[in-house]
Amino acid sequence: MSSQDRPVSSFKDKIKSSWPYILTVAIIGFVSLWVRILPSDRVLLPGGIVKFTTNDAWYHMRTLFVLLENYPHRMFFNPMTNYPNGSYIHFGPLFDQMMAVTSLILGMGNPSSQLINTIGAYFPAVLGALTVIPVYYIGKYLGGHKTGILAAILIAFAPGQFLSRSMIGFTDHHVAESLFSTLFMMFFMLALISAKEKNLRFEDVFNKKFTVLKEPLLYSILAGVMYSAYQLCWPGGSLFLLIVLVYAIFQYILDNFRNESSDYLGFTGIVTCLVSTILILPFVHPDMGFSLYYYSWFHVITSLGTMAGFVALSFIEREFKRKKMKSYYYPLLILGVGILGLICIKILSPSLYSLIIHAPNTVFRIQQGGPSTIDEASSIFYDYGAFTMSKVYSNFTPTGFFASLLGMFILAANLFRKSKPQEVLLLVWSFLIFLAIYGQNRFAYYYSINVSVLSAYLGGLLLEKVKWSELDQKFKSNVKSPADIPRALKFVKVEQVFAVLLIVIFLIYPVYGSAMPYTKMVYGQPSQPWDEACTWLRSNTPDPGMDYNAIYEAPTNGEMFQYPDTAYGVMSWWDFGHYIETIGHRIPNANPFQAGIGGRSKSINETNRPGATTFLTAPSEEEASAVLEAIDPRSDKAGARYIMSDAKMATSMFQSITKWTLDIEGYYQAYWIDKQYISLPTTRYFNTMEARLHILDGNGLKQYRMVHETEAYQTDELLYKYAYNFILGGNIPQVYTGYVKVFEYVKGAKITGTVSSNETVKINTTILTNQGRTFDYSQSTTADSQGRYEFTVPYSTDGPIAGQTQFDTAPSGSYVLSYGDTTKEVKVSEEAVLKGEQIKV
Questions:
Q1: Domain boundaries, given as residue ranges, for the chain
Q2: Domains 528-743 and 748-840 in one fold
Q3: pLDDT at residue 311 is higher than 60
Q4: Among 52, 72, 146, 212, which residue's Cβ finds the most Cβ atoms within 10 Å?
Q5: Taking residues 104-114, what's their average pLDDT?
Q6: Are 745 and 641 in contact, with CB atoms under 8 Å apart?
């Protein structure tokens, strides 16, 4: 034990001894907060406007406003998304409750919308800065104050996902996950240290030796509270129970080989799991059965199961010692008991067994197919199937990442010596989170904690090598006032200065240099076109007849939510579902929870389920309309009334859309142009509904009409239009058009007439958009043997009517019908378009 870690005689002396470190950590915390709120002028805009970062942040603010509207009751089922099914909310309640309580306190019971939005924007930055505290204490109990201070500095500036998800405006629960999971590990570690130092035995429990039990019990209870807080921010918090259970198995085995008691570990684990079980129980939804994603009996069973594991491991260890059995049998018996337990679970509850067996795949396995396109769910080491270190370096810096690997190697080597429980815990914790980022890079915000602690652990070892503790003690003995500092500098050795320089250059400066660019980024979503399009949608489309801030009961298991007849869906790609709901106050078919996507899961031989991917990749208008009709099982209702598309959906994002169908071939082909190969879209691409709507403006479609478009931006749209003209011999203008376009799915007016048999008949009009742009709309058909023809057209020439879409994109004149040398003008009313009425020419 270094001198700085020796116990002091009293609480007063302890505070006196620790205040320099407390002050240092406080300063680091405030610097950490300052870094995170630097972009406030790009998030908090004039007029009380707040631009939240990411779509999930908008959804958290939606659930927060519903909570405050109905306080203390929160929304569990939301029918305003994933039409026509609605979605259960898998977000934990704690993150929203913390913001709600803060809003109610600062707003004196009646907070304004601006205050709520401001609190929501600042909240992740505050939680990110608070994470400095548990990281300091974890570092301190691994290598003393110097290690703790260094760990606090490193996490304060840790770049990548930990920093980005704790910046102002990133109002999502991820930073709360990081804070509470780290607090959980800190208190669990303190409980282990305290119980082991006091040589705690189960007999102390039975004999009520509170002098021995008091401190370990307090830390264990706090560990259970923090684990519950962590899990109540994210249902997937069972990940850290797995970490603790794996650690416990290793620690029991090590203690058994060393002939040491593990009662300290059993006591800590049992109390922690018991507390977490009690606290999570009130939030369980019995109708969820065994679900990993919603608070269900699975979360109770895992806590109780982990507690039972600690009981079993302790009992087995005691029996081993009582019977003086050989230590190498102990791991074999643990393995046998584990297998037997799984067999029993499989017999008693096959569904629970399946969930337990497959749960690790959701974290540690690399995603395939559609899920592989979710940026945060892709492996940190792979990008489009190719190995890469770029995401690793951007999240941790090269020196930080490799320092973490070296730190784990040293901790693993310590296993063969007298390793401490906290060192084994850090090793198992770090290794499992490392496996987690291999499966999904989103867990980089967890691994940043491990990188900071492991890097500080290495730095602490280096300082120990140059006898930093001796220097620290000399400074304490000789520096009584600031005037004494110059004289005390004579105690500093060259190797100590060199060690500090190495730490600054290789550990601190890289994270600082990587962190500061985050303060200069453009924050705030959605983009201006999506904001404008959703605002237009809210003001110019019929009210779906839903109480936006009401709390709705979930439908009975197996039944559909009963929407009013006025409700309808809005089809778009899942990325934009929350914007459609929170800004547009309309009901998206698909959302960023990957609900409503449709497509296939494992094999191309599966039935292609109706949803966003199936609609957007449909190879004809008829098949696309069939998808919309199939989404809503009611025969008289379509799954969507409006379709929203943006330029990225039609260009750079399109390949990701196709992956959800598992049918990705043939949409693009390489062409030799200007002495290089260029990948261009093919006929198959231009036949898709997405291309017909966005690239071709819906020209020729019978039941889809553009009703609004936003301002144009420079995108890959021109390249796609060039390809259409080059490959298919088209003649569309190669100009930028609306970045976001809104289309309406209508029955279409039926224009009929008679001409000579087998004669070609054409109909066309010029569409004028709200941006002042014009494009041609035309169809062509051949009369039958009786001379009869029919066109279904989606645009009305008379303008909008009350209670329906107030479109601002429409024909600039009548339809022109032509055959032979004859031309006729045809007017079409809005009622005829909406009701599918016939117009005879």
A1: 3-37+131-518, 528-743, 748-840
A2: no
A3: yes
A4: 52
A5: 95
A6: yes
The predicted-structure confidence for 630-671, as pLDDT tens digits, reads as follows: 999 888 889 999 999 999 999 999 999 999 999 999 999 998
Residue 408: CB atoms within 10 Å: 19
In which region does residue 700 sit, left (phi positive, over 0), alpha (psi from -120 to 50) or beta (all else)? left
Q: Over the stretch 171-197, which tens digit does the pLDDT of each residue have?
A: 999 999 999 999 999 999 999 999 999
Helix/strand/coil percentages in the chain, nearest 5: 55, 10, 30
CA distances to 502, 503, 505, 531 from 498, in Å: 6, 9, 10, 54
Token output for 698: 């819906």
| Chain mean position to CA 367 | 15
The answer to whether the CB of 294 falls within 8 A of the CB of 285 is yes
Sort 146 into a burial class: Cβ within 10 Å, 0-12 / 13-18 / 19+: buried
The three-state DSSP-derived secondary structure of 139-177 is HHHHHCHHHHHHHHHHHHHCCCHHHHCCCCCCCCCHHHH
Domain 748-840, classified CATH 2.60.120.340, yes or no: no
Place of tokens 């750079």: 652
CA dihedral 271, 272, 273, 276 (to 10 degrees): 120
Dihedral angle sign, alpha carbons of residues 744, 747, 748, 749? negative
Q: 315, 207, 228, 212: which is closest to 272 by C-alpha?
A: 228
Tokens of 714: 């420079």
Strands 569-571 and 587-588: parallel
Closest CA to 189 of 242, 244, 148, 146: 244
The set of residues, in sequence order, having a beta carbon less than 8 Å from that of 262 and lying 6+ positions away, is 251, 252, 255, 256, 313, 314, 317
| Residues forming a β-bridge with 738 | 712
Count of beta carbons in the 10 Å neighbourhood of residue 680: 18
Radius of gyration of the chain, Cα coordinates, nearest whole angstrom: 32
SS3 45: strand
The residue assigned the tokens 């669990």 is 188
- Judged against a pLDDT cut of 70, whether residue 480 lies above it is answered with no
- Residue 40 DSSP SS3: helix
Cis omega before residue 592 (within 30°)?
no
Q: For the chain, first and last CA: distance in Å? A: 98
How far apart are the C-alpha atoms of 754 and 332, rounded to whole Å? Answer: 87
In Å, what is the CA distance from 200 to each residue of 253, 275, 317, 770?
18, 19, 15, 76
Residue 354 pLDDT = 74
**CA 141 – CA 8 distance, rounded (Å):** 16
Helices (H), 258-388: 263-280, 297-323, 329-348, 350-358, 361-364
- Write the pLDDT tens digit of every residue in 419-476: 899 999 999 999 999 999 998 888 999 999 999 999 999 999 999 998 877 777 776 6
Per residue in 733-769, pLDDT (tens digit) is: 999 999 999 999 999 999 999 999 999 999 999 999 9
C-alpha 570/C-alpha 743 separation (Å) is: 10
Mean pLDDT of the chain, nearest integer: 90
Q: Cα–Cα–Cα angle for 385, 390, 395, nearest 5°?
A: 120
Identify the CA nearest to 135 among candidates 168, 179, 191.
179
Q: How far apart are CA 484 and CA 305, in angstroms?
A: 58
CB–CB of 780/771 below 8 Å?
no
Cα dihedral sign, 455-460-465-471: positive
Res 130 pLDDT > 60: yes
Backbone angles phi, psi at 113, to 5 degrees: -60, -40
According to DSSP, residue 678 is labeled E
SS3 call for 20: helix
**Which overall architecture, per CATH, does domain 528-743 show?**
3-Layer(aba) Sandwich (3.40)
Dihedral of the alpha carbons of 692, 770, 637, 83, in degrees to the nearest 10: 90
Compute CA 598 distance to the chain's CA centroid, rounded to the nearest angstrom.
20
